Amino acid sequence: LERYRDVLQVLDKVSPELDNMSSLYHMRAQCHWLLDEPAMALATLDAADQKFDADPSFLRRKVFFLIELGLYREATQQGLTYLERSKGKREDYIALGSALRASGEPDEAVLLLETARLMYPADVEVNKVLAHAYLDKGQTNSAAALIYEASLLDPSLTSEAAELYRRAGRPHRALLLNGQVTDQQVKFRQRLALLLELQRYEQAADMDGDLRRTGLIDDEDIRYALAYAVFKTGEFDTAETHLQKLERPDLFRKAAELRRAIQDCSEDRWKCM
User: Fold this and answer.
1) 198: buried, middle or exposed (CB in 10 Å: 19+, 13-18, 0-12)?
2) What is the CA radius of gyration of the chain?
3) Residues 47-69 pLDDT 10s
4) How would you class 240 by CB atoms within 10 Å of its CB: exposed for 0-12, middle for 13-18, buried for 19 or more?
5) Model-level pTM?
6) Contact 65/38 with Cβ under 8 angstroms?
7) What is the pLDDT of residues 223-271, one digit of tens each?
């Protein structure tokens, strides 16, 4: 019934025998939390942790409350204590690793999450959080390898792995992974960007049919990118056809610049070689 204040009043009247039930302390802490009384919720958990010192569940709940309050450094300290006292669950490592990241401690996050990865080697979520910790450290290649490993279990991550390899300066590896992406729109959008980055303009220009078939040609960013690829192959009239369909102000300005380049190349082709 969500009558949390009434619950607390009832709990204040329990007999001494019932007061030894640890579950009632969890109930009391949760009621204070739902009444937006975090200080009382945390104090209740501290008292219960002292009373039932062999039960680490109170400390675990406290860690999650601290994370929700945004007190990541305190959550990290309490979380490490909790892991020392208990075996810990998969979600505990993920939550604590995320808290370490949020508190600006990527090195500690990586160490903790690498431990979790040894314990849960086939867990997609552990790999994803660990990958983001490596990204915090600027180690994009390590992050890409982890997301690729996770994509073997969750194919929806393949495009993300390809993007990370691109950011890591390995566009050929990214292009190879792009071929395994099942979502056609995601696949062709990413492929066009990769081909342009690799300066494979003819291959990019040849994507016209795929872009039309998937409806991506209606995206003005895609149409401009295709116009640029076509321009680089020397098909100036086709490039102009694409540019004429751009209406967005920022792309309209870029189209004007590309038209000037087309004009220069039409007059002196040697400038564009």
Assistant:
1) middle
2) 28
3) 999 999 899 999 999 999 998 99
4) middle
5) 0.78
6) yes
7) 999 999 999 998 999 999 999 999 899 998 899 999 998 888 877 666 6
Q: How far apart are CA 56 and CA 111, in angstroms?
A: 22
Half-sphere exposure of residue 255: CA atoms within 13 angstroms, side-chain side: 21
**Both tokens assigned to 111:** 């160490």
Q: Residue 37 gets which letter from DSSP?
A: -
Compute φ and ψ for 271, nearest 5 degrees.
-70, -25
Closest CA to 162 of 172, 154, 153: 172
SS3 116: helix
264: left (phi over 0), alpha (psi -120 to 50) or beta: alpha
Q: Is 54 exposed, middle or buried (0-12, 13-18, 19+ CB in 10 A)?
A: exposed
In this model, does residue 107 exceed pLDDT 60? Answer: yes
pLDDT in tens, 148-157: 999 999 999 9
